[in-house]
Amino acid sequence: xxxxxxxxxxxSLLLTGCSNFxxxxxxxxxxxxxxxxxxxxxxxxxxIQIYDSQxxxxxxxxxxxxxxxxxxxxxxxxxxxxxxxNNGSLPNEGxxxxxxxxxRHIMSLGIKYxxxxxxxxxxxxxxxxxxxxxxxxxxxxxxxxxxxKVIPLVDxxxxxxxxxxxxxxxxxxxxxLGGIAKGYIADRIKDYLLExxxxxxxxxxxxxxxxxxxxxxxxxxxxGIQMPYADRNETIAAMxxxxxxxxxxxxxxxxxxxxxxxxxxxxxxxxxxPIDNSLISVSIISPYxxxxxxxxxxxxxxxLEKGMDLVESIPNTHAIFITDDYKLHYTKGFKEAIKIIx
Length: 342
Prior knowledge:
By secondary structure, the chain is an alpha+beta fold. It folds into 2 domains: 21-57 and 182-188 and 199-337, ApbE-like domains (T-fold, Roll), CATH 3.10.520; 72-168, T-fold. 27% of the residues lie in helices and 25% in strands. It contains 9 helices and 17 strands. The protein has an 8-stranded antiparallel β-sheet. A 4-stranded antiparallel β-sheet has the order 4-5-7-6, covered by helices on one side. It has a 3-stranded antiparallel β-sheet with strand order 1-10-11, with no helix packed on it. Strand 8 and strand 9 (208-213) form a beta hairpin. Helix 1 (56-73) runs antiparallel to helix 6, helix 3 (101-116) packs parallel to helix 7 and helix 6 packs antiparallel against helix 7 (289-302). The model is unreliable at 1-29 (pLDDT under 50).
């Protein structure tokens, strides 16, 4: 699974992983140290910390739950439901494939963001993604002819979802959930923790940071946004967050340099190339992490003005846009709703 700026979480100690938010807590001596568990899942380091329980079984079960979702949403795991959908091996009746409730739910959310973004967020971008290799030691640009061949396959409007039946209206269409899956999973992990009586926790799925409640002393968590292109410990902004999600998308998290030019991983589904505007990153603060996931990609693609307009139209949702001159742009009402830490 791809995307989302990796985050560095500092909660009285530095966690391992590819990340670049940082969070700090000042634990009171009366409170025990939080229990924590990390694992490499979703193609990243995921970490769960619980502050108001010492039950290790809850942590273990939460990690196992993430693995279960990976077996549904992964595009590259040959055992996953999505992989089997993309390769035509799911049960089908005629042209339609029967999918699980979980896959149906997340895809319906992805379609919503396709509509909000006028197609710049597109679940069917997998054919384009498959032509880019952002991990290659010697990266090359996609073959132009191959790119032009697959661009017509990328259009979520040529896919229909009715109940649990998914139909592709063009042969060769495939789905990628990397722009939304981690947020969706983070929300499900929060649901599980609440069911277990946990009211103070931090979920970090390789950059999607979701705060469950507050710290045990009732104070909010402190979340820092990484300075673009700087060391992961250096922040450009910090804020107090209670029971909210923080998700970022940016051009410096995953990119390749070819013939002296950088190409980042946030691709334009209409051209097949990285989106080129004045933005370096977008950070979304929202009640649900899945919305932070979808909105961070969507607003980055829309650009500063249209992206800010979209976020400002959504209740209880805020954003920080960073432009290529390193200026921070806050949506209306941000500073009244969220305390910025000097």
